[in-house]
Amino acid sequence: MNLQKLFKAQAELDKHIIEKKGLQGVDLLPNLILALQVELGECAQESRCFKFWSSRQEPVTEDLRVVDYKESGEAILETYNPLLEEYVDCLHFILSIGNQIKFDREITGRYINDSITEQFNSVFEDVSNLMKSIREDQPESDLKSWYEELVKGIIGLGEMLGFSWGQIEDAYFSKNAVNHSRQENGY
After folding, report:
1. Cα(133)–Cα(131) distance, rounded to whole angstroms?
2. Who's near 99: CB < 8 A, 6+ residues apart?
3. What was the pLDDT predicted at 5?
4. Considering the entire predicted model, what is its pTM?
């Protein structure tokens, strides 16, 4: 697991977005944290881990989406993994937050709860603790400790969802390229 190359790639994407959107000097941290919470919710939705009332308990790991159209108007479809894509969206925002707070520690390990539902709840709690640390202007060491806990939780979540680090990296860099392209095409 090499987070440093992901932090670097994310910093390049963030710089691109900030320059393209004219956001230099803007405090984006509250937006990034909210975006992370939204993506965590979307990831939980695809995991279906909490849906005790549903007969569909299995996570959504395969679906089709339109990627283009033929001259005839027929849609060109591709198969993708919605759960992995949402997980990687979370990772993008976590890395952006780390870059914003100038996180510079090496992170090793992860934590795992007894169930995926508990893991999601713990990661949401980590995000809340990080936000509280920012709001209360706690010492930088506390902020970085909460951030490190968040990263360990998201790494554990990925493992619990069944993803290898290779799958996560591949999906991250694929989505990173899509995000760069979106910025060039007026997203």
Report:
1. 5
2. 7, 10, 11, 14
3. 93
4. 0.93
Backbone angles phi, psi at 80, to 5 degrees: -145, 170
Helix (H) or strand (E) holding 83: helix 82-100
Phi-psi category of residue 22: left, alpha or beta, with phi > 0 → left and psi -120 to 50 → alpha: left
**174: region left, alpha or beta (phi > 0 left; psi from -120 to 50 alpha):** alpha
Paired tokens of 89: 């969206």
Kindly report the CA angle at 12 between 153 and 36, in degrees rounded to 5?
Answer: 35
Q: Which two tokens stand for residue 167?
A: 């799958």
Residue 187 has pLDDT above 80, yes or no: no
Q: Are 25 and 76 in contact (CB under 8 A)?
A: no
CA distance 163 to 29: 28
Q: What is the pLDDT of residue 185?
A: 77
Mean pLDDT computed over every residue of the chain: 94
Q: Cα(79)–Cα(67) distance, rounded to whole angstroms? A: 10
- 144 closest CA partner among 159, 155, 129: 129
What pLDDT, on a 0 to 100 scale, did the predictor assign at position 105?
87
Res 58: pLDDT: 94
d(CA 1, CA 3): 6
Enter the tokens of residue 9. Answer: 């790639």
d(CA 156, CA 109): 8
